[in-house]
Design a protein that fits this description.
The complex is a heterotrimer of chains A (165), B (151) and C (375). Helices cover 33% and strands 10% of the residues of chain A. Chain A is of the alpha/beta class and 165 residues long. Chain A has 2 domains: 31 residues, no CATH class; 125 residues, 3-Layer(aba) Sandwich (Rossmann fold), CATH 3.40.50.12280. In chain A, helix 2 runs antiparallel to helix 6. The longest helix of chain A has 16 residues. Helix content of chain B is 21%, strand content 31%. The longest helix of chain B is centred in the last third of the chain and has 12 residues. The chains are: A alpha/beta (165), B alpha/beta (151), C alpha+beta (375). Chains A and C meet through helix 3 of A and helix 1, helix 2 and helix 5 of C.
Amino acid sequence: MNGVDNELIKKIPGAPVIMTSVEWAINASRANSLWTVTFGLRCCAIEMMHTGGTKTDWSRFGFEVPAASPRRADVMVVAGTVSKKMAPVVKRLYEQMPGPKYVMAMGACAISGGPFIYDSYSVVMGVDKLIPVDVYIPGCPPRPEALIDGFIKLQKKIMAQKIRK
Amino acid sequence: MTVRELLEKIKQKAEIEDSKEDLGVLNAYVKPSSLRSLLIYMRDSLGFDWMSFMTALDMPQENTIEAVYELFSNSSKDSARIKVKLSRQAAEVETVSDIYRTAEWHEREAAEMFGITFKNHPHPENLILTPDIKAPLRKDFSGGDMKRMPE
Amino acid sequence: MEQKTAFEIQELTSDEYVLSMGPQHPATHGVLRILLRMDGEVVVNLQPDPGYIHSSIEKICENRKYDQVMPYTDRMDYLSAVSYNLAYALAVEKLMGLEVPNRGRHIRVILAEMNRIMSHLLWFAAYGIDMGALTPIWYAFRERENLITLIEMQTGNRLTHHALRIGGVKNDLPTGFVEGLNKFLENFNDMVDEYEALFIDNVIFKARTKSIGVLKKENAISYGVTGPNLRASGCDIDLRKLAPYSGYENFSFEVCSEKNGDSWDRCKIRMNEMRQSASILRQAIDTLPEGEISAKAPKIIKPTPGGCYAKVEGPRGEVGAYVVSAGTDKPYRVKFRSPSFSNLSALNEMCAGVKIADLVAIMGSLDIVIPEIDR
């Protein structure tokens, strides 16, 4: 794979081996074992729990462990409305996560404020006003299949990263 | 008991400014000074052991804020709504949180949403709002970067 | 002053400190912050600090038309969305003098009881995780997926379904709905027995919940606690029997109540309520009448001026909507009475002198949902 002949691989003693670039190996290990911070705020949290349930199982893709503490997590899935009282907490949690870290904005409230754009005095209009977002998943709430689609897009984004500065 | 009987009974105990029947429920406007004695009488003698909620209504056209107390009797299934008219500039009323313990949190919420002061309340701090937003449910509120929905 | 030796110092004392069980915590079921004053590991006093998900829904509702308010009622307590829809619809229909036809009322009861089972199943899953049992969640979610598929068939959405309209229901029951529901109910009672034996009758669970978090009857009524939490303390109050609405007087079911008021009783009642809801669903399917599903509501809804308070029995307790109309096409004021608001205010009463692990057990047994506290 990655440019090396298959027949050549089978002749190497101790085969099967994979020969690939360091960049692919690091990106693949990052993309296939993402640990999420359980940050369900509102209704989208229930759809996130269903995505981890038995019908659509997200641990097939590597999101097995919901790490409750941000200190050992890779992805923050912001599922729900961010209010102004909660905004400093979101920022602090993001800063507590060690790099490389990714953020997914799930649902209309986290993308832009959702149904609370007009006549509301206490809602932050989208979580990207506080922290940088990698993937946006629209819906109110998005179906579990839509959330899995978002995760796969994040995996593709990670696979396309360059590790050399 | 019927609305009329209930009204007669509470007229003996408190000064009723006005009253009306709204879809079968008595709405009685009492003076702020006789609110506590009326609620104690209704809880102990008339069987209204349940307070569903306590909230307020902003009436800028009459320059008042009405505090609304919704009571229910589990034994006779009667409802009653007691209202107190307060001035918009200085809205103050006695607390009833020792008569019905559920009123403690409801009064805290009404205080921060409408700018009402409840005298002798055990914990008069903000419950839900941040300190920079003041009395948002009044009709003339416009802070907090609020955008009105276009027609 | 002479120095005391180690043998003469009789007791060790500890200082009190304040611990913040912060907004992001896996056991608080949402964004709730609780300030605990602790003495070692024992909780001396606690003070809930809600407001981290406040979305100003009551201010929004003053600038929307009456039927535009209905989707916002789903998003307050997303696990009992049908109860909030029902409370709001009943209040507006009473102000307008609309009468919902029989088939519409029946369908409302079916959706409400399905919602009750779904909400209790999610409580079962979440409580298991709080206590450290990681298997109940898979069983509960398997059952929940079956019901969600049926609700999606009827309303079009899995969560926040906007199932009801002012005047009745939007869609009639589609083909396949009644067969699907019958298939679900065939095995449901056996499944509930199995889940109860797995989790509620477990020795460790009983040791962690019996005599923990006792709430006495007078305190429960005075604090406004409703739902299974009130019925565990010896009160028989269920609004479906006390002040029936939407045709509940035509169904026969028992009110589940217990006497001790501890956490184990609250759990037992929720399992029994699932069985009673299944029985109501069977009766509703057997006696489904023909006819219209919705009353003829005008295109622009303008109720007569006045105020109306309507209450229903949701999975967590008394859900109410107080609607004040000034005669225009937008409500003057809408106030939602949420059960978790009053249930949480009684937490300090139940938690004097318990350890933190017991605090998690008590909070889980209260079954609170945070967005309906902050609205």
